[in-house]
Amino acid sequence: MYLQERFDMRRQWPEAKPIAESRAFTIYELTVVMALLAILTSLAIPPILKWIKKGQVDEAKAILNSAITDCLQEYRINPTAWQNKEPDSLNRQLPGSYQFSGEKKTCKEVAIEDKSSTKSLPDLSFNINTEGKVAKIARIYDPDYENAAKTFGPTSLSSSAIAINACLEQRSTCLLNLNAHIASGVNGLAPVRDWTGECRFPADLSASCSMPIWTFRKVKYPSQATYDKAVNDALGETCRQERQKLITATHTGQTPADVVALGCPSSWWYLGADLGSKAAYDAKVAEVAEARCIADREAARINNQRGKYGPIPGPGRCGEIKWICNQSLLDSEAEYNIQCKVPPPPPPPPPCINPWGCA
Questions:
Q1: Does residue 23 sit in helix, strand or coil?
Q2: Given pLDDT bands bounded at 50, 70 and 90, which one contains residue 22?
Q3: 11-25, 289-303, 321-335: which has the highest mean pLDDT?
């Protein structure tokens, strides 16, 4: 019975085929598959690498934006030495092949660049001026990363970057001149102007150093009306009228005693300009005297005066010694002798020895 069951089971099994007749991959099929895989890999790897590099650009932008935040905070906390501060956000490894450009890693300017041989990633940088204004620039080498660079800031050599940088430079100069005038304590309509408009792209056509400004007691006022109100509030109508008289009369010197007796504050004036302090008045007098010395010397040169000129009693350059000839101003006597040498006079005639007299 057992043998019969075994026999029946073997009859139900399929017959085994010879090994030579079994189905498998041929070498040609494997070659085709490998070629297809190689093609797919070659198509997939470049986009993957490109996205990796775009991620590195995004990480670099995040690091620099964090550094900007650190620097602006330092600008508010330490307004005198913030430019030499190295932001804490930069104390980390830069992504990919990015490295710092030289020593540009302080709050005054931070710049990173792609140090690889291909140099495909954009250079990123920012600087902060003395007014706390940030300018960000990206320099593009590969168009594939242009959009990633533009989200950081204007691209270098673009019209936007050139316009913004030029505008920021003009604004910085304008405000420096204005702040220097305010600090001088001179009152009235300022000889300099205030900045108006914004530095942006497209250009703000109103952005310029053209706004008239009035100053009183080291505070600026945007209009004659606000300036007059400040003067009236501080001095009263009587003192304002007396001040106007001094301005009209181009008063020079200290405020007259009779005006001070009315309760008006004493000040120092030069040709109707309220200079505020004795030090500012002395500096103005010295400046005018020095300018007069220089003008007189220039007039002597134009009039073709010859020889030594100076020193002239007075401040600054009044004490300089110059030499003049042929409408030229020379610094030394040696230079004068070389360039302006006067020919010696002719020798005297020989003595007459004719006993009958000389003609």
A1: coil
A2: low
A3: 289-303
Q: Which amino acid is at 62?
A: A
Q: Which residues share a beta bridge with 273? A: 270
Q: Which helix (H) or strand (E) holds 8?
A: helix 2-12
Q: How many angstroms separate the CA atoms of 162 and 111, rounded? A: 18
CA distance 162 to 53: 27
Give domain limits for the chain: 295-343
- State both tokens at 216: 């009183």
HSE-CB for 188 with a 13 A CA cutoff = 16
Distance from CA of residue 153 to its chain's centroid? 17
Distances (CA, A) of 178 to 110, 114, 197, 281: 28, 40, 16, 19
Token pair, residue 172, equals 């910085």
CA distance 5 to 217: 122
Copy the structure tokens of residue 329. 């101003």
Do the strands 328-330 and 98-106 form a parallel or antiparallel pair, or are they unpaired?
unpaired
Percent of the chain clearing pLDDT 70 (strictly above): 86
Confidence of residue 259 (pLDDT cuts 50, 70, 90): confident
pLDDT higher than threshold 80 for residue 69: yes
Span 142-170, average pLDDT: 72
Number of alpha helices (DSSP H) and beta strands (DSSP E) in the chain: 8, 15
How far is residue 21 from each of residues 11, 27, 28, measured CA to CA in Å? 21, 17, 18
Token pair recorded at residue 166: 């030029």
Helix (H) or strand (E) segment spanning residue 128: strand 123-128
* Model confidence pLDDT, tens digit, residues 53-63: 888 888 888 99
Q: Are 61 and 96 in contact (CB under 8 A)?
A: no
